Amino acid sequence: MSCTNCSTDTNGVPKGCKSNGDCGSGSCGSGSKLAVFDWLANMEVPNNQEKHNIVEVRFKNGRKHFYKNEKKLPITLGDVIVVEGNPGHDVGIVSLTGELIKIQMKKKKIAMDSDEVKKVYRKASQKEVDTWQEAQSKELETQRKGREIINRLGLKMKLSDVEYQGDGKKATFYYTADERVDFRMLIREFASTFGIRIEMKQVGLRQEAARLGGIGSCGRELCCSTWLTDFRKVSTAAARYQQLSLNPIKLAGQCGKLKCCLNFELDSYLDALKAFPKKEIALKTEKGLAYFVKMDIFKGVSWYTYKGEDFSKWFELNVSQLQEILALNKKGEKAPNLETYKTNLPEEPQVVFEDAVGQDSLTRFDKPKRRRSNRNNKRRRNNNQNRNKQKTTAKNGQQNKQKSNNANKKKNYRNSNRNRNPKKDV
Length: 426
What we know:
- By secondary structure, the chain is an alpha+beta fold.
- Helix content is 32%, strand content 16%.
- The chain is built from 11 helices and 12 strands.
- Strands 1-2-5-3-4 form a 5-stranded mixed β-barrel. The protein has a 4-stranded antiparallel beta sheet with strand order 9-10-11-12, covered by helices on one side. Strands 6-7-8 form a 3-stranded mixed beta sheet, with helices on both faces.
């Protein structure tokens, strides 16, 4: 399937995202990843106010910038336009227009008169589109040769992606490195090999995973490559609050860092934990001190055990009972023994499924098994008995034959001794 902006390649084969019209690969116009839904598109601008002249333009892998439409060109969503580059010009696809641009710029903390907001030159002609597509086709080969040069120079860095500018005169090399890298010699090698202007840009591991994309352990596309734009800090405290085991293999994403989704439900867990007392607080009872063992956040239940007794004996207490015991301890009184508290948990409703198939069995389409007749069973049993008898008979015959051979050997031995030592006549 192909969109209008994809058309065909140089061999005449239709392009497209192969995703049933959803351009999740970032190769088409308005349906790209990280796209913003323009909920103000149907709103008309008041008569005494001019339309907003700033547009949002998308480039490779969801990279976006804002540009001024000073010439007031009739630009719509999905148009391929030529914008100001550094240096030269670049080609991108319009991803957002209208009044929603103000909200997006405020969210990204970009002022209207900022130097970051550059100019829109014109709509791209067919020649400029061909030059842009030709430059994009060189990116994989440039990345491969760039990695070979990095390995030859022995630099401790990883080249993750290459992006050409729309005019084909400049390329941005995205890399990751744990330490500071002196790539002055590398830039000279790149410039002499590719004959273009080189720009090196270091990205983090999360940004690298967002550019490359992939499938997470949940079976869906990575959040960072589809909709997540701000990368908040993720700590192991988020896993502790959610009662998760601190297993780095399970908690780490494809970037090697902690998964961003650990922060998604953290607020709900923190709100639920407010009703529970701190784990370090011991309960003072008439039988002795009781210490925390574990909790179930969603059921609102905690387990405690007595100090110095059998650790396997736990007592289940709900939140209201815990608050009652702590209130008595604050007054200087001891609570009754934990055995007196019985947690009355609501029974979970049993889900009853309706029989949508009716009275038919699920195995009604299976091929029925043939019943073996008693005659065949008797015949098989007789054959087994005869086979066992033959085995025992053959075994007995071998034993008898062995015995006769041994007897003959003894007899021959006696006769030979008699011949050697005959009895003397008296």
